[in-house]
Structure formats: C-alpha cells, structure tokens
C-alpha cells in the first residue's frame, strides 16, 4: 500500500481519494485541480486561489525559479510557500516542458530535485523526456529508457519528506506506456503523471488520450495516484476521472483569459461572440459581456481568469459528487455530447469497459440509459459475464412480455435491453433496475441479443425460446440459431 494515497470511493475507473503531502502538512482530496502559477506573472494570486477558490494544491515550475536569479535567491532564502504565499501543497515541475519546447536544459535530475527540496517544494519532479505522439518506435523506446534511468536516479537523491513524481512516458505506444507504468510503479516514487498528452489534446485526439491513459493504468497499481499532466480544460475532466486520473493541472485558466477565451464545461467561447454569460459565478453574475469587454486589458484578463477558475473548480466538485452518487458515466455521457471528439473519447473509454469493470462498484443508485453508447457500459458487460454462471432449467422462455401462461416451459425469464435475460428474482438488483427509454434503440436490442447468446452458449443442453417485441434483423441475427423465436407483437 502506498502510504501517501488512499482511495475512499470509486465509480467506473474514477475515485475519490486522499493524497497526504507530509512536508506541507496537508491532505488533498482528489480528484484535485492544481492551478499553474508562473512565478513571474501573477494573474490570480496563490493566496486568492486558496481563499476564494479553495485550491488545496498548486503547481509551479522550479526550472523557471532556478533560472531567474532574483526569484531563485528569494526562494532559497524564504522558501516556496512564503514566496508564493500559499498555505496548501506545492508541486514543482522540473523543466521537462522547456526541454520538449527548446530541445535542451542545463540541469540534471539530481540538481533539480535537490533544488526543489531546498526551496521547500512538497512534490518534486525529475527531468523526464516528454516524448511526443506518433514518433518512431525506436525514438519512443530510447527516450523512455532515459526517463526510466532518471527515475532510478531520483530514488537515490536525498529528498527528505518531499514526495517525488514518476512520470510515465512512451508516446502513443500502448505497450510502452504499460511497461513504463509498471516500471514507475516498482520505484519508491510517489505520484504518477501521465506525460506528453498535451499535443494529443491540442489536436482533439481524446480517444488517443484515453488509450494512453488506459495503458499507463494497466501498468500502475490501483493504489497509484495518477496525474493527467497538462489537461486543464474542464470539458475533459469527467472523462479523465472515469479513466482513473486523480490530478489535473490548469494553465488554461490564465492562458485562455489572456486571449479573451471563456471556458465552459462544453467547450471554449470567445468573449467577443457572447451576448450572455451562461454561468452563475460571481464574475458572470456581476458583469455583462459588454462590461467585461469594456474593462482595461489587465482587469479583463483577471476577471476572465477568475471565471475560468470558477468553472474549472465547479466541474471538479460536480465530478466528485458524481463518483459518490455512482453516476459518473452519466456525466461523461453529457460531456461527450459537447463535441464529436469528446464522443470519440467516450467511445474509446467504452473500448476499455472490461478494464474499468474491475473498479466499478457492483451496486449503485441507478443506471440511466441516456445514449446508445450506454449499451457498452461496464455494467452490461458484467451482466453478460454473470449470465454464464447462472443455473438454468431444461427449457426456458426468455421474454420481453409476461411470463408464459402454459406449462410448456420450466421457467420464464425477463429480457430487458441492453442487459438481455435474467431470472425475475434479480429484477430488483443493480443494474437491472435501470431507467431505459421506452423507444429502445438498436444498440440496446443488439446488446440484449448478445446477452442471450452468452446464456445459450453456456447452456448447450437447455431449450430456449425468445419472445421479443419486433426486434430488427440486426438484433435477431445475433441470437443463436437453435433458439426458437417468436414476435410477441404478431397477433
Ligand atoms: Zn462565470
């Protein structure tokens, strides 16, 4: 068990956890957002982040501090917490981002970790190599090897009670991400950023982000706190949490504000295009778009940054509540409707339903079937697997209608799309209590047919009859041929 992290509640791959940060003397509740602070620019002061927005943790770049003489001297003299005036936990990045942008940096993992500890960082970072997407396999392997050597070097640095990040790289090669996760997990380092996903997000490749995270998670243990590094748009937090990410950092709130961009949970708007502000935060309650547009540049930037942060923190709270209530996937489905690329992300998430099913609670409040993607949720998969273990009589009527009134069959089971058949005794148990629309879609019927197929194949000696309500051919052709089929709507 990793001492610094405890998982308290789960839904799908998402969890509510506590990250104990000993040198700061604080415990951060996850999922958590780390606002990015540029030590040279102060859009919103760290004190305000803590007091007004409830930020428990932030991230700043130790390499910028290291390279700026007066800031470095002051950081060494008074420490990072006093320099930034922030009471919570402070994570520091190492300059890997600068390495990726400019090709080189003049500091080693040992030097930067010692420096991070000397200025009082609570979570330090080695100099890993953020390998971009789609590079050659050879380059991805070479750079991963370098990253892994540096993680090993980081273990030998005297870091006291500072926690240390172990970034997981491997470009867009799932097997490399998985083995990188396994290697990082085997070190004695503490927090696990999935690195170099920013280029994927900039290109709206949310499905590839999901595959990369799923691979890293297969390598990491379930007790590893995972940081989706560089993911700051609230639109994708629900998806990230559902995959099992615990930490997010946002530079977006400030960067977008600088360009008059207004964040929402369903995408980004330009301030100039807005006639109304669709948000209840104090900034939007007190200003009209015209008010904001007429502010001087620096005031407008601060107000927009404040709005962007309100939206971002509110989404984190909404997600935590969804994990508690067991309706995180319903929230992911809503967010997936905001943009076709988000829908791709959700569909990619469902490709990993088997992996997610392992951490998904067996019982929750309600299953709402809200899109045809719902037919591929982990609960459907789990029910289909359960069908193989149920005991069945010699002859069985599977029906969408009433029980058979004849003694033609030994038993009659209900068929409910998207789950398929189940004994009536189970009808009060999750997920069979699902709320499903009356106007069933083809995906739900096909999933129900797959359930029948699983049951039939597991019980070769039983005679099956299916009473369905005018299923389309695409569903009926998934039902094994030896099942007698009757349409209840005929006559
Ligand atoms: Zn607002």
From TrEMBL:
Catalysed reactions, as listed in the record: guanosine(15) in tRNA + 7-cyano-7-carbaguanine = 7-cyano-7-carbaguanosine(15) in tRNA + guanine
Pfam families according to UniProt: TGT
Biological pathway: tRNA modification; archaeosine-tRNA biosynthesis
One example GO MF annotation: zinc ion binding
Catalytic residues, chain numbering: 93 (nucleophile)
Keyword flag Cell division: no
GO CC entries: cytoplasm
Family: Belongs to the archaeosine tRNA-ribosyltransferase family.
Region (Disordered) residue spans: 123-144
One record GO biological process: tRNA wobble guanine modification
Protein name as annotated: tRNA-guanine(15) transglycosylase
tRNA-guanine(15) transglycosylase-like domain ranges (all copies): 13-340
Record-listed substrate binding positions: 128, 196
Cofactor note: Binds 1 zinc ion per subunit.
Cofactor(s) of this protein: Zn(2+)
EC number of this enzyme: 2.4.2.48
UniProt gene name: tgtA
């Amino acid at each position: 068990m990793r001492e610094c992290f405890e998982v308290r509640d789960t839904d799908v791959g998402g969890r509510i956890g506590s990250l104990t940060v000993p040198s700061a003397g604080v415990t951060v509740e996850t999922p958590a957002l780390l606002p990015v602070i540029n030590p040279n620019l102060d859009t919103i002061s760290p004190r305000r982040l803590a007091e007004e927005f409830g930020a428990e943790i932030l991230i700043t770049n130790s390499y910028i501090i290291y390279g700026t003489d007066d800031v470095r001297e002051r950081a060494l003299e008074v420490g990072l917490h006093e320099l930034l005036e922030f009471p919570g936990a402070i994570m520091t990045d190492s300059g890997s981002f600068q390495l990726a942008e400019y090709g080189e940096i003049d500091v080693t993992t040992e030097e930067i970790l010692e420096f991070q500890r000397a200025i009082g960082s609570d979570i330090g970072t080695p100099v890993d190599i953020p390998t971009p997407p789609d590079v050659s396999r050879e380059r991805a392997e070479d750079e991963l090897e370098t990253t892994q050597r540096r993680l090993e070097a980081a273990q030998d640095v005297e870091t006291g009670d500072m926690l240390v990040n172990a970034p997981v790289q491997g470009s867009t090669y799932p097997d490399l991400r998985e083995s990188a996760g396994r290697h990082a997990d085997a070190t004695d380092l503490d927090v696990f950023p999935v690195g170099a996903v920013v280029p994927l997000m900039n290109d709206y490749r949310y499905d590839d982000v999901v595959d990369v995270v799923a691979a890293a998670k297969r390598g990491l243990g379930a007790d590893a706190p995972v940081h989706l590094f560089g993911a700051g748009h609230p639109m994708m937090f629900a998806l990230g949490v559902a995959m099992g990410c615990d930490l997010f950092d946002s530079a977006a709130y400030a960067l977008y504000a600088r360009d008059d961009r207004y964040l929402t949970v369903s995408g980004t708007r330009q301030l100039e295009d807005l006639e109304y502000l669709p948000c209840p935060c104090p900034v939007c309650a007190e200003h009209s778009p015209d008010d904001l547009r007429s502010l001087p540049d620096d005031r407008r930037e601060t107000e927009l940054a404040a709005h962007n942060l309100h939206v971002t923190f509110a989404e984190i709270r909404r997600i935590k509540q969804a994990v508690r209530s067991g309706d995180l996937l319903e929230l992911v489905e809503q967010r997936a409707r905001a943009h076709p690329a988000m829908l791709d992300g959700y569909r990619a998430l469902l490709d990993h339903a088997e992996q997610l099913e392992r951490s998904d609670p067996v019982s929750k409040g309600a299953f709402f079937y809200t899109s045809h993607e719902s037919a591929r949720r982990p609960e459907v998969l789990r029910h289909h697997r359960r069908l193989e273990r149920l005991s069945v009589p010699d002859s069985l009527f599977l029906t969408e209608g009433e029980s058979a009134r004849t003694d033609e069959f030994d038993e009659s089971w209900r068929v409910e799309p998207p789950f398929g058949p189940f004994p009536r005794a189970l009808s009060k148990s999750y997920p069979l209590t699902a709320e499903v629309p009356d106007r069933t879609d083809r995906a739900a019927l096909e999933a129900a047919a797959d359930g029948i197929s699983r049951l039939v194949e597991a019980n070769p000696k039983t005679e099956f009859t299916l009473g369905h309500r005018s299923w389309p051919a695409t569903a009926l052709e998934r039902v094994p041929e030896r099942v007698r089929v009757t349409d209840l709507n005929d006559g």
